[in-house]
Amino acid sequence: MKEKHIKEYKGTVVVIKNNELQENIPFIDEADAHDKFLEQCKKYISNFDEYSAEDIDTILEDELEIFGHGEISISWF
Predict the structure, then answer these.
(1) For residue 28, how many C-alpha atoms fall within 13 Å in the half-sphere facing its CB?
(2) Residue 14 bridge partners (DSSP)
(3) What angle do CA 22, 27, 31 make, to 5 degrees?
(4) How far are the Cα atoms of 1, 20, 31, 51 from residue 58, in angstroms, in the given order?
(5) What is the pLDDT along the chain (77 residues), one digit of tens a residue?
(6) For residue 32, which of 14, 61, 10 has the smallest C-alpha distance?
(7) In this predicted structure, what is the pLDDT of residue 51?
(8) So where are the chain's domains?
(9) What's the predicted TM-score (pTM) here?
(10) Which is nearest to 42 in space by CA: 15, 24, 20, 69?
(11) Is 60 helix (H, G, I), strand (E, B) or coil?
């Protein structure tokens, strides 16, 4: 019988909007976390296309972006 490989998640990307959980997306490593974080930024932040490379570097370093009535963050466990 083949052994199933189970992904070991390291945390989640969390999206809160209007005080409600919108997304809770698991990731497996830092690169995956950053990809999923930026995907959610594109999805939820209307002017994300105006962010400079420096802006993006800053939010990735902070692992947090606050927008309008919500926030997107990376939560490690």
Answers:
(1) 3
(2) 24, 73
(3) 120
(4) 47, 25, 15, 10
(5) 555 666 788 999 999 999 999 999 999 999 999 999 999 999 999 999 999 999 999 999 999 999 999 999 999 99
(6) 10
(7) 98
(8) 11-76
(9) 0.89
(10) 15
(11) helix
